[in-house]
Design brief:
alpha/beta; Rossmann fold; 5-stranded parallel sheet; about 30% helix; globular; Glyco_trans_9; LPS_LOS_Heptosyltrfase; transferase; Glycosyltransferase family 9 protein; glycosyltransferase
Length: about 325
């Protein structure tokens, strides 16, 4: 059995599509899997069961990257081709079964939209695969028995990044002696190029308590997140990675639709600005260019602290 899985360059969309791939693995035990993904998200699949090959997709002019991918795949006989990008590439490959995402539906969660390629009634929850190598790394990086607060203070666009200084204040509140995670270790996650924009957060933290995962591969990050107690972060791929890893995840929203991209799972929640998504994005002065000021200013520290406390205490008996 051979499965070709074509997925997104964006980490978030790739994570959200993984439930579909997991469904295929359950339908076809022992299948060999080839994953074609953007270079940013490719490392997400290093520990997938039955991995045969990862094909990084680098965008080229005139959509030549799809022709290049076809050239890599056309000579093989596939049992299943799953195209989460809706490229139509599978129609030019030999396969017994093809699953291709169709029209976009902004009214539903992205997972619901992606899962429509399946016949299942319930959308499959996103997953992230780890292996013994990455799990052992996480044991070395995250002390056994230690409480861990994980944060994702960066975002791929400045407009949806909660002010960095408030993350420092949030950490202080949540890890204070009377906080929900007193003296917890502090796990900081971000892409390599985002270190500079969140440096003020790192500088404000006690070095002996910091677990610096900025720029780490996604599988190691996921393995470490599995050993964490709470994740709080902006709407980002790392937020979805945390939810898929099974840690309680609180997403912060402003100029992005929470009904479309909230972290998925029973142990997840989101909190947004008092202004709704459309109120922000339809304002005459709204600017989607890079470097704009945050549209998250009205999301107060108290609002996030309260949401974090409610999520962390969910399902627990409070004396």
């Amino acid at each position: 059995m051979r499965i070709l899985f074509i997925t997104s360059n964006r980490i978030g969309d790739a994570v959200l599509s993984n439930g579909v791939l997991q469904s295929m693995l359950e339908q076809y035990p022992g299948a060999k899997v080839t994953v074609a993904a953007g270079s940013v998200s490719a490392s997400l699949y290093e520990a997938i069961p039955g991995l045969e090959e990862i094909i990084p997709i680098t965008k080229l002019k005139h959509h030549a990257h799809w022709l290049k991918l076809w050239a890599r795949c056309f000579a093989k006989r596939w049992d299943v081709v799953v195209d989460m990008r809706g490229t139509g590439l599978s129609y030019f490959l030999w396969t017994k079964r093809r699953l291709v995402t169709s029209s976009k539906d902004d009214k539903v969660h992205r997972i619901v939209e992606l899962s429509r390629v399946l016949d299942s009634v319930e959308p499959p929850s996103p997953v992230v695969w780890t292996d013994d190598i990455h799990d052992q790394k996480s044991v070395q990086m995250v002390p056994k028995g230690a409480k861990v607060l994980a944060i994702g203070p960066a975002a791929n666009w400045s407009g949806k990044q909660w002010p960095v200084e408030r993350f420092s204040q949030l950490i202080e509140r949540l890890t204070a002696k009377d906080g929900i995670l007193p003296e917890a270790r502090l796990m900081v996650l971000a892409a390599p190029h985002e270190r500079k924009q969140i440096q003020s957060v790192l500088s404000s933290l006690p070095k002996e308590r910091v677990i610096d995962l900025i720029g780490h591969d996604l599988v190691t990050a996921a393995a470490c997140l599995k050993r964490s107690d709470l994740f709080v972060g902006n709407d980002s791929g790392l937020m979805h990675l945390a939810a898929a890893a099974g840690v309680k995840t609180l997403g912060l929203f402003g100029p992005s639709p929470e009904w479309r991209y909230h972290p998925w799972g029973a142990d997840c929640a989101c909190v947004r600005t008092p202004e709704g998504y459309y109120e922000i994005t339809h304002h005459p002065e709204f600017d989607y260019s890079h470097g704009v000021n945050s549209y998250m200013e009205s999301l107060t520290l108290d609002m996030v602290v309260t949401a974090a406390e409610e999520l962390y205490n969910r399902g627990k008996e409070i004396p």
